[in-house]
Amino acid sequence: MSGLMIAAPASGSGKTVVTLGLMRALKRRSLRLAPGKAGPDYIDPAFHSAASGETCFNFDPWAMRPEFLLAQAESHGSGRLLLIEAMMGLFDGAADGSGSAGDLAALLGLPVVLVVDCAKTSQSVAALVQGFAAYRADVRVAGVILNRVGSDRHEAMLRMALDAIGMPVLGAIRSDAGLALPERHLGLVQASEHAALETFVGHAADVMERCCDLDLLVAIADRASGQSASPAVSSIAPIGQHVAIARDMAFAFSYAHLIEGWRGQGAEVSFFSPLADEAPAGAADAVYLPGGYPELHAGPLSSAARFSSGMLNAAARGTRIYGECGGYMVLGDALIDGEGASHAMLGLLPLVTSYAVRKRHLGYRRVTPVDTGCFAGAMTAHEFHYSTVVAEGDADRLFTARDALDNDLGAVGLRRGKVCGSYMHLVDITETGT
User: Fold this and answer.
1) pTM tops 0.85, yes or no
2) Contact criterion met (CB below 8 Å) for 341 and 308
């Protein structure tokens, strides 16, 4: 397997844009790419897929078992260049200190290219880079890309400092307002909402072709040293034999490894768009409403009559229905939007959520089903939302949860018969899970 990781000392260094530009630039060279994103992220993978033309898979070193990470890297990267974008800073992990992108690079044997924001530094860049390069013997920083360089003189100073410590400079990118992506409360604005995405990615690729040594990057990727693994390792079992999955701008947060894993375990998968007022397939014995931005589309969802009747009919037939984060909110009685207006939702769970009452909920979780009616074993998950629960009615709890520091978070989520949901984004089974 050939591959590399694009990382940075901290969030906001520009590694996503650099990754997108590199992916498109390498695609132009007809290289077969296997895009990846470290950690719990739904938004960046959609940009990666747009830039590379390939499905992007997540590699989460905290929430995924090592054997699953190795198997996914081997199957996804076989015969292709595995290009994984790190999350946060290279050595930033969960609250317990584990699960960093550095951990992932060490496990998969990926050389690291460090993207350094140089807007407010010159010779001190050498101390920063040398510290990252020497911090862990099992993580190899193979070179740096200098980002937001101000001038020829600035670049010369940076290169001289890095040459003194023997660190290869793989590229130097000037400050460019055209390399900025719009953001909102959960991260970047989704790729599907970026009106000029192709133009943006094309410009980023032009910059990388002009400013980076692509030949050297490919040569570094060819020196990846990943372990071998069995590609037969599976993850969370499918929730049905035919799973209908909501997919549009309101329900965009589903993991490729989860859906492909369900297919690999024999399940049929179909898609429908609630925002287009589509109902789930009548033949489906399970419906999955993933996370996304229902709080931004509450009005259209509330008035989507075919979607609503299709979901109510599915529940009446005994179809297993699972809502995750945003999907959980839509299963409830009402959703209060950012302006305080209440919108009727599906009413399948006794729940009212509000985006007007905002509080950030963020972190890794370990969850165990209270009852095996929806899921059969312990799983890893993560939580990231700003909406809050403002009312709950009578229903069974879905999971018990603990955080990354093993603090007891109590019972979370709701279940009524075969309809269940929670704010937890499920990732993988645990070591003892089934």
Assistant:
1) yes
2) no
Catalytic residues: 325
**Which domains occur in the chain, in start order?**
2-221 (3.40.50.300), 242-429 (3.40.50.880)
- Residue 31 pLDDT class (50, 70, 90 cuts): very high
A 10 A CB-CB count for 151 gives 10
Q: Are 315 and 351 in contact (CB under 8 A)?
A: no
Could you tell me if residue 417 is left (phi over 0), alpha (psi between -120 and 50 degrees) or otherwise beta?
A: left
Give the tokens for residue 229: 């693994």
CB 94 within 8 A of CB 102: no
**Per-residue pLDDT for 183 more than 80?**
no
For residue range 319-363, what is the model confidence (pLDDT) as tens digits? 999 999 999 999 999 999 999 999 999 999 999 999 998 888 889
Q: Which phi and psi (to 5°) does residue 409 adopt?
A: -100, 0
- Residue 316 CB coordination number (10 Å): 8
* Cα(145)–Cα(329) distance, integer angstroms: 42
